[in-house]
């Protein structure tokens, strides 16, 4: 209980630090919203009866926002903290190490919730995105969001060990996040992508997060146009749950409190 209390206090500090960094706020919260506005204004028309491209894109951007908050932000923040010696000093304090990670999780959940609400509100008001109308769809939205952001958070913590310095963090992480968005059905209709791209995307969580979000926000009739011919909720849960386990294992094996040198 003491560790949990310290972790929650640490989470409050993480949120304050995030909000004080204008660059983090703009990139994490406003960048997905800007993309939603740009793509929504440029691309029009229907990709299927009753489904516009903007509706399809908005559903994918919700998943991409979770990727940005959980994976991208942590994989950039943690190397910077490591380079500045913050992690080394925290390791030398009486604070349990687990409390540090609880704080990061609290920050990701809070920022992710705000970003999701903003994206959904904007998409519903300006791009005709239909919000879930049944309890079953809200339940699907909840477990896809929970598993997705958990997998992204753990993978972000593990991926943070690849950057040698804080400055190299964005250069290492950003291309990976952008490529995943292009091949996972965020910017383009997933079924229209080349088969080899789909095969690569199917290995990673974002593809399944976007498919899960489409099952929440698009009509059931669109499921037949998915590559598997259905929403595949069981497979989505299995893949995302598997990445939670893999991400946790990688965190335990690779996380570093100090720089390699």
Automatic annotation (TrEMBL):
Coiled-coil stretches noted in the UniProt entry, renumbered to this chain: none
Membrane disposition: Multi-pass membrane protein
Keywords in alphabetical order: Antibiotic resistance, Cell membrane, Membrane, Transmembrane, Transmembrane helix, Transport
GO molecular function: ABC-type transporter activity
A GO term from the CC aspect: ATP-binding cassette (ABC) transporter complex
TM ranges: 25-44, 56-78, 99-126, 138-159, 171-190, 235-255
Subcellular localization(s) per the UniProt record: Cell membrane; Membrane
Pfam families assigned to the protein according to its UniProt record, in alphabetical order: ABC2_membrane (PF01061)
Gene Ontology annotations of biological process type: response to antibiotic
Primary subcellular site in the record, as a coarse category: membrane
Transport among keywords: yes
Keyword Cytoplasm: no
Domain ABC transmembrane type-2 per the UniProt entry, residue ranges: 23-258
Similarity comment: Belongs to the ABC-2 integral membrane protein family.
Protein name: Transport permease protein
Organism this protein belongs to: Dactylosporangium sucinum
């Amino acid at each position: 209980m003491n560790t949990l209390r310290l972790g929650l206090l640490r989470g409050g500090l993480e949120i304050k630090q995030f909000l004080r960094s204008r660059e983090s706020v703009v990139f994490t919260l406003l960048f997905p919203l800007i993309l939603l506005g740009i793509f929504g204004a440029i691309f029009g028309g229907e990709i299927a009866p009753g489904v516009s491209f903007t509706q399809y894109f908005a559903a994918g951007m919700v998943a991409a926002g979770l990727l940005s908050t959980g994976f991208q932000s942590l994989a950039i923040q943690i190397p910077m903290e490591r380079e500045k010696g913050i992690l080394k000093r925290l390791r030398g304090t009486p604070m349990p190490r687990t409390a540090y990670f609880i704080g990061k999780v609290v920050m990701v959940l809070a920022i992710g919730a705000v970003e999701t609400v903003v994206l959904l509100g904007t998409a519903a008001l300006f791009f005709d995105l239909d919000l879930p109308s049944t309890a079953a769809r809200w339940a699907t939205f909840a477990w896809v969001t929970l598993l997705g952001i958990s997998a992204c958070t753990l993978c972000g913590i593990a991926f943070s060990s690849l950057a040698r310095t804080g400055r190299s963090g964005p250069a290492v992480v950003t291309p990976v996040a952008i490529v995943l968005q292009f091949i996972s059905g965020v910017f383009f209709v997933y079924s229209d992508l080349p088969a080899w791209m789909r095969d690569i995307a199917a290995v990673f969580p974002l593809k399944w997060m976007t498919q899960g979000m489409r099952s929440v926000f698009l009509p059931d009739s669109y499921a037949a146009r998915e590559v598997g011919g259905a929403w595949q909720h069981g497979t989505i849960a299995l893949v995302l749950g598997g990445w939670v386990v893999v991400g946790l294992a990688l965190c335990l094996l690779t996380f570093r409190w100090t720089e390699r040198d």
